[in-house]
Design goal:
Two copies of one chain form a homodimer.
Chain A (H helix, E strand, L loop, with lengths): L1 E6 L6 H12 L6 E7 L3 E3 L5 E3 L2 E2 L2 H4 L2 E4 L5 H6 L1 H5 L9 E5 L2 H7 L15 H5 L10 E4 L2 E4 L5 H13 L1 H11 L5 H13 L10
Parallel strand pairs in A: 1-2, 1-6, 2-5, 6-7, 7-9
Antiparallel strand pairs in A: 3-4, 8-9
Chain lengths: 206, 206
């Protein structure tokens, strides 16, 4: 089973963690599953929803894919060195993605190199202050690192994960299922086009 | 404050409850807020995520807006008469909406009259077995009742709630914020067009 850690901190944005995890979990029958991965047994969302973590933060080190969610307290997260040190990621072995302010975590972990990123408007100045260029786009990937900006772009991040692990047909099947009724083809086309990132086709091999 | 109950049962689909609640909660500063409303102190999603309810089921009777979420156990819900009896809704006073299999709950509560609905493909035969016509569309509203089909159509349900309570400008502002970066206008246009429902403009008065 290919396992995905959806890293979710206190103050998290429900859209960012749950759109990605719910889309990916539609592939459980095909060998891909996602877990809400948290630094404490429970975390509370930006809207006061208390959620039990499915995996502890240490799971991120062993997962095949790690997605860093977003929220209103990401600046506290990156200022917390002991917390960041618990996130031991390896882009040579893992697919790593960020949603919105999650890009700031990737920057602090030194995972971005010279790669430009996508993030949300609120996070943008903080990401730029780390010397990282921000694109006016919803999704950008280079090699095993991907970044998405704008809450609903979390469907593009999930599309990238599914495409990279199971292939484009699997991603299209999920998008077809979750799309608004009657908007199936356009929803899938839009996500697959966006998750192609930077004009390069996404690899369909795991 | 205008209050929205997002009714969420065991086995719920995270997309359905959290997309609607997160979009609506962006309007908290404008006097509109949503709460995950559950029949027990905690509920567990179809993917095993345990979530603490923010309001008990009885809150649905006093809320201004009630949205019935979807999940893999809605048929158990509608077979549970004591549980259904706890959902005391009044379409003369409340805006009432359903997401995917939530339409089955509206049918069992006798709220649909002759109105056709939107739902997902899996729920469709069960809704039709109640004598309700299902549309090949993502969203349909008549008066104070709205139905959405396809997980990601939950953004249209939220758009309807925001438009009906705060007006179209407020809905557009939320959609602009949550859209994938660079897809702001098209995301808002698509949702506002869909939530107009059946060709009739949605009323912008509360």
């Amino acid at each position: 089973m290919v396992q995905v850690a959806v890293v979710t901190f206190d103050g998290f944005n429900e859209l960012d963690s749950f759109i990605a995890s719910a889309l990916i979990n539609r592939c459980r029958g095909d060998g891909l599953e996602a877990f809400i991965t948290t630094p404490a047994p429970t975390v509370t969302s930006m809207n006061g929803v208390e959620v039990g973590g499915q995996r502890p933060l240490g799971f991120a080190a062993e997962a095949d894919v790690v997605l860093i969610g977003s929220g209103v307290r990401t600046r506290d997260v990156v200022a917390d060195s002991p917390l960041l040190a618990r996130l031991s990621l390896d882009p040579a072995r893992q697919l790593i993605g960020s949603q919105c302010s999650g890009a700031l975590v990737l920057a602090h972990l030194g995972l971005l190199g010279a790669m430009p990123v996508c993030t949300d408007l609120t996070s943008r100045p903080f990401v730029e202050a780390r010397g990282v260029r921000v694109l006016d786009a919803p999704f950008h990937a280079e090699g095993n690192i991907a970044t998405a900006g704008g809450c609903l772009a979390s469907q593009y991040l999930a599309t990238w994960v599914i495409t990279r692990t199971l292939g484009e047909d699997a991603a299209r099947a999920v998008l077809d299922y979750v799309a608004p009724v009657g908007e199936n083809g356009e929803t899938a086309d839009r996500a697959l086009r966006a998750a192609g990132g930077g004009g390069r086709p996404v690899s369909v091999s795991a």
